[in-house]
Amino acid sequence: MMDTHIVILAAGKGTRMRSSQPKVLHRLAGLPLIAHVLRAAAPLAPRSTTIVIGHGGDRVREALAAWPGLQYAVQEEQLGTAHALQQAESRLAGATGALLVLSGDVPRLSAASLTRLVGHHVASGAAVTVLTAVVDRPYGYGRIVRIDGRLARIVEERDAAPAERAIREINSGIYVFSLDSVFDALRAIDAHNAQGEHYLTDIVAVYRHRGARVETVVVEDAGQIQGINSRSELAEAGTLVRQQKNEELMAAGVTIEDPATTYVDQDVEVGPDTVLHPFVILEGRTTIGRACEIHAGTRIVNSTLADGVTVLNHCLIVDSRVETGASVGPFAHLRGESTLAAGARVGNFVELKKTVLGPGSKAMHHAYLGDATIGAKVNVGAGTITCNYDGERKHPTVIEDHAFIGSDSQLIAPVTVGQGAYVAAGSSITDDVPAGALAIARGRQVNKPDWAAKKASGSKKE
After folding, report:
1. Which residue among 3, 38, 301, 369 has the highest number of C-beta atoms inside a 10 angstrom radius?
2. CATH code given to domain 4-225
3. String of b and e for 131-156 (b: at least 16 CB within 10 Å)?
4. Whole-prediction pTM value?
5. Where do the structural domains in the chain lie, given as residue ranges?
6. Which residues of the chain are under the pLDDT cut of 50?
């Protein structure tokens, strides 16, 4: 097999996005645009992948730091797509085979289309193979001009004559070149056009003039080559990508009551027989098990839910884990690597931060549990707070198995409540509570008879 090398053009400013962020870093279904492109190309097993960066290049490097094997070339001045590709020449010195050129803002490309494109290029022995599509509204795209059915040249919208603008076959901006000739051909491209730029599209005419073989591959789904040039196009593409993801989940046995209002990122996994109610948002690397039920208004980010979990309305779960049969909500917040063990329950307006709630334990109303390790079968009463921060450092709270924490209690960390111990309602606990003990830490009640009547009469006597 011929070696395949990839260059992704990602140096454009994306002025129509009206953003200080590089266009290729705008997110679609949980991933930067350029990450979608990299994923589509990954099955080709390229020998090298070069990103041509310019505007915001350092931010692109940072965003892709975890992606293995990338190298970068810098386009200091924006002098056109041909000029951008030339910047990768030094990175490909001595390389042979096929060079696949992609755009970092075309996120819906499929690996199958790229595989077919490269395969045709290699089999035909072409100098360049262009991916094209036929669309009803070709406005804004370069047109494919053919003579006797063969690609003669690509003409950009601004430079096209009226008859050429009527052509419905468009250039995708995706090419495969033979590495042994491409950079020499690039040097023959001039900037005699409306933009005064070195267009990569002009390389077709250069090859034709030299008698080299020029090929095309038509992609059936023109949506695959849609570039993202504005926020409205980003939103449009996002709708289509989410729709495809939802269809895949439903085909795999997931019930989605209202796909139009259900947002599921690309890397999310959902098990069969799980039900997603309207306005559910699943983000990042979230995994939902089998036979779960996620109710309306819930957002789950980078978290894992085991089988049979119920999440009631309007909950937020971030970087946390919920084990089998546990229940969350309504209006609960789990964050900071919190864990609900099997059968545990958190309810109305309960927040967990970096806390483990043990098997069968529950905190059902208006509680904050931070930096806490809570054992099995513990009852945490309404209004309980683990006071974990002293103004400088965070401190842990430990509540052992079968303990009972009365309502409106404050546990001043660091503190441990022993196995089977009780904390009386309204207590502020500053010392450890031994196993099996009852801790009471509150002021003694004093009743003053007839105080209300004396107050009403204006008497100052107690």
Report:
1. 369
2. 3.90.550.10
3. bbbeeeebeebbbbbeeeeebebbbb
4. 0.90
5. 4-225, 353-462
6. none
